[in-house]
Design goal:
Blueprint: E1 6-11, H1 16-28, E2 34-37, H2 45-51, H3 55-59, E3 62-64, H4 67-71, E4 74-80, E5 91-92, H5 94-105, E6 110-115, H6 124-127, E7 132-134, H7 147-160, H8 168-172, H9 179-195, H10 207-218, H11 222-244
Parallel strand pairs: 1-2, 1-6, 2-3, 4-6, 4-7, 5-7
Length: about 240
């Protein structure tokens, strides 16, 4: 496991003490890369105090204004969440998450682990940016887990990984699509479905979320994204010609 290719991303943390505690949790497991998306308060003396010597992790912490910035360059994203959803996302345990991450980053690719807000966790839209939801088994009658504790558990599982089987992308000798390319594909897909009148933009229901879940399971390669977008462009062109006729 290459710790330099794993990002631990805290989305809108409200308490600076949790940032420091997360930095400490990462350093104890040999992890180094902490990203913050719109933290309520950072830098902070309280974060430094709670880091308990993990000042080097805090010094390298990347602060982002958007989730897109935090995920740029990542090919595989996991979202931690204890809350079930109306449309459930593919859900795995922390150890399975670490196994998938180890195989992915072995090919030189970047991995991101998302942790939501202390009170409300990740939104549905944020979870849709992830290929998998990671659920930490806990007491069903008291499943609340401190943010830094969740970071510690995932960092521990990552640290246990040492070599793993290559990914399909490695076996094929092809590059996996990163998050920016995949997100552009979904934007193109949505517009194409509107253009061919398959999707009502005013009443999308769960169609787009189901499609995200479908393509998230397939782990798109860069060449495959290009092919799919070419198909979408062709479909849009035919829709325009039909409209003129």
């Amino acid at each position: 496991m290459d710790a330099t290719r794993i990002r631990f991303v805290l989305v809108e943390p409200s308490h600076p003490g949790n940032i420091g505690a997360a930095a400490r949790a990462l350093k104890t497991m040999g992890m180094t890369r902490l990203y913050l998306v719109n933290p309520a308060q950072y830098p902070s003396a309280e974060a430094t105090a709670r880091a308990s010597g993990a000042d080097d992790v805090l010094a390298r912490t990347v602060v982002c204004s958007t989730l897109d910035q935090a995920l740029t360059g990542c090919s595989l994203v996991f979202g931690t969440s204890a809350r079930s959803r109306s449309l459930e996302w593919p859900t795995i345990a922390p150890r399975v998450c670490a196994e998938y991450a180890a195989r992915e980053q072995a090919g030189g690719r970047e991995i991101a682990l998302l942790f939501g807000r202390e009170r409300s966790g990740l939104t549905n839209a944020e979870l849709e940016r992830c290929q998998y939801r990671v659920h930490i088994p806990s007491n069903p009658h008291y499943s609340s887990l401190n943010l830094a504790s969740a970071v510690q558990i995932l960092a521990y599982e990552m640290a246990l990984m040492r070599g793993a089987a290559p990914t399909l992308a490695d076996q094929l000798g092809e590059e996996a699509a990163d998050q920016v390319e995949v997100e552009r594909f979904f934007e193109h897909l949505q517009q194409a479905l509107v253009d061919i009148e398959f999707l009502d933009p005013d009443n999308p229901r769960l169609l787009l979320r189901r499609l995200r879940r479908l393509f998230g399971r397939t782990r798109l390669l860069r060449a495959e994204v290009s092919i799919l977008r070419g198909i979408l462009t062709a479909a849009q062109r035919q829709a325009r010609l039909a409209a003129k006729r």
